């Protein structure tokens, strides 16, 4: 795809990510009247032509409110990076050179972007970034073909830069997993060493091989399970007896090139 595809409504977003498949998808979350969004728009269009193997999507947070809320968008412009429908990175602000540098990192580490590269079969590298620090205690993996399911998996957290396959091979992992068939069952959860995953901002997962020694490793579903580091303590709140809320969105600009969104609930309450 060359050019930027504008998402017209919430129902179009997931099909576009599905169509992107294993290609990198860069999604720009924008907002009408956001000056930083307008400023970076020409550069975003230029990048879509410069990197034809990358999918470029644009989502207006007012037009697609459910999509923006599902992806926890709190400022515009925000750029989310997806591969195989999995969010792998985030970039905020209107710095075009910084955005391109982030795209380059993912394109250069894409094993499919260089047909002459000598990548061992079964290798797979996935990075997921979180909106806030989290504590992780398990993960869940599913695949439609057990022979292509991951076997030896190395997990790294909070890496200062993007990792390539050579880095993943020689670096010491936060945890190494040797997966078996029961780990991929519908009710299966893969436990993590909770003490090592207490303040996680990003996770990089390196798959070294698969169960059937196949050429390609396949993951249909991947999720991490945990809690935010700054969890809400409900004991700190007084009891609320009644309330009706209506959402509205307000916005304001900041000096760092973003427009912040504030989802406000109008609540009429009676506190005991």
From TrEMBL:
Gene Ontology cellular component terms for the protein in this record: cytoplasm
Domain of life: Eukaryota
Membrane spanning stretches: none
Keyword Disulfide bond among UniProt keywords: yes
Keyword annotations from UniProtKB, A to Z: Disulfide bond, Redox-active center
PITH domain residues: 68-244
Keyword match Disulfide bond: yes
PROSITE patterns listed in its UniProt record: PITH
Designated name of the protein: PITH domain-containing protein
Organism per entry: Oncorhynchus tshawytscha
Lineage of the organism: Eukaryota, Metazoa, Chordata, Craniata, Vertebrata
């Amino acid at each position: 795809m060359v050019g930027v595809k504008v998402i017209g409504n919430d129902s179009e977003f997931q099909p576009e990510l599905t169509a992107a498949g294993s290609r990198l998808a860069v999604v720009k979350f924008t907002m009408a009247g956001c000056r930083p969004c307008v400023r970076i728009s020409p550069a975003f269009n230029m990048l879509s032509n410069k990197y034809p193997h990358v999918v470029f999507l644009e989502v207006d947070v007012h037009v697609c409110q459910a999509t923006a809320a599902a992806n926890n968008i709190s400022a515009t412009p925000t750029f989310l990076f997806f591969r195989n429908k999995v969010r792998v990175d985030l970039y905020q602000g209107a710095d075009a050179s910084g955005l391109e540098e982030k795209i380059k990192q993912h394109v250069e580490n894409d094993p499919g972007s260089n047909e002459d590269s000598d990548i061992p079969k079964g290798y797979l590298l996935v990075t997921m970034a979180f909106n806030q620090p989290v504590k992780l205690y398990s993960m869940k993996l599913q695949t439609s073909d057990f022979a292509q399911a991951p076997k030896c998996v190395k997990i790294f957290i909070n890496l200062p830069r993007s990792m390539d396959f050579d880095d993943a091979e020689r670096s010491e992992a936060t945890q190494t997993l040797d997966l078996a068939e029961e780990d991929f069952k519908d009710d299966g959860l893969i436990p993590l060493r909770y003490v090592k995953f207490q303040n996680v901002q990003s996770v990089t997962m390196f798959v070294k091989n698969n169960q059937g020694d196949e050429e390609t490793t396949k993951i249909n579903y991947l999720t991490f399970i945990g809690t935010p580091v700054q969890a809400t303590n409900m004991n700190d709140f007084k009891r609320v007896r009644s309330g009706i809320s209506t959402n509205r969105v307000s916005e304001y600009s900041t000096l760092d090139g973003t427009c912040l969104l504030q989802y406000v609930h109008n609540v009429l309450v009676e506190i005991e």
